[in-house]
Automatic annotation (TrEMBL):
Domain HicB-like antitoxin of toxin-antitoxin system stretches: 4-63
PANTHER family: ANTITOXIN HICB (PTHR34504:SF4)
Protein name listed in UniProt: Type II toxin-antitoxin system antitoxin HicB
Top-level taxon in the UniProt lineage: Bacteria
Alphabetized Pfam families for the sequence: HicB_lk_antitox
């Protein structure tokens, strides 16, 4: 799974600024550390959606140190990020993937929607169509 580190920086007005070094578009604030941590997850998801919408490669997270604050993406979201990146690398458009998988475009749109709870098997099938496989590990 992908784990994105972030920093909490005290702001001049007493709030905490949340910054993700790997995803500069993911910015938020919080009045308390707890609120900042909650807002961090939402900010990261919103920024990743921007990458998806703009068909830009999603940056992979840098290595987290033990003391780093971080957001661990769920397995399904991680799989969708990896699928979207692989489509970009291979130059595969959604219409081409839909054709290869014998699916309709709305199904592919949902497959690449971070908020839609697609079946992991469908993401695996899409990756297979791209000559890749999803590998899950227990940590």
């Amino acid at each position: 799974m992908l784990k994105y580190p972030y920093t909490l920086i005290p702001d001049t007005n007493g709030t905490l600024l949340v910054q993700f070094p790997d995803v500069p578009e993911a910015l938020t604030v919080g009045d308390t550390p707890e609120e900042a941590r909650l807002n961090a997850k939402e900010a990261l998801e919103a920024a990743l959606e921007i990458y998806f919408d703009q068909k830009r490669p999603i940056p992979m997270p840098s290595i987290c140190r033990r003391e780093d604050e971080s957001i661990l993406l769920p397995a399904l979201v991680t799989a969708k990020v990896l699928l979207a990146n692989e489509m970009i690398v291979q130059g595969i458009r959604k219409t081409e993937l839909a054709h290869k998988m014998d699916m309709h475009m709305p199904q592919i749109d949902r497959l690449l929607d971070l908020r839609h709870s697609s079946k992991i098997e469908t993401v695996e099938a899409a990756l297979r169509q791209l000559g890749r496989r999803l590998d899950v590990q227990l940590a």
